[in-house]
Amino acid sequence: MKNFIKNNKVTVVAFIICVIFVVLVFAIKLTFFPNEGTAIYGDRLDGIEKVEITDKQQKDIIKSLEDKDEVKSADTDIKGRTLNVLITVNDDVELDPAKALTSSVIDNLKKDQTSFYDIQVFISKDNDDTRFPIIGYKHQDKDEFSWTKDR
Length: 151
Prior knowledge:
Keywords: Membrane, Transmembrane, Transmembrane helix. It is built from six helices and five strands, in the order αααββαααβββ. The chain is of the alpha+beta class.
């Protein structure tokens, strides 16, 4: 064993340095990224399976919006506890009728869903109307939407 170490000093030293380097990298990784294996939302999504918004409900929201004369297109997207609704309205639609479209979203959800999910509604036009886009937000604890202040 002594002869091996004497004959391979450079190799043994390089191996020891590599082992120390790997241990240091691992220690630094644990210091800066301690919760890498945990869920991105933590426990905020606990109970979501009891009030899950189904694909059918999302399609019903889209259909009820697109059935309105004011709406060109609509889409939904769920991220965690947030339901995003994207609505493109016709160029002649004013602010108040556009804001009233949120009732179609709420009407297609159950009470326990509206008290679990935050709902964001993004309403835009294809033209360059300076009053649009507008964004409405309903917190799970509130009954009404709040709207962007500059519109």
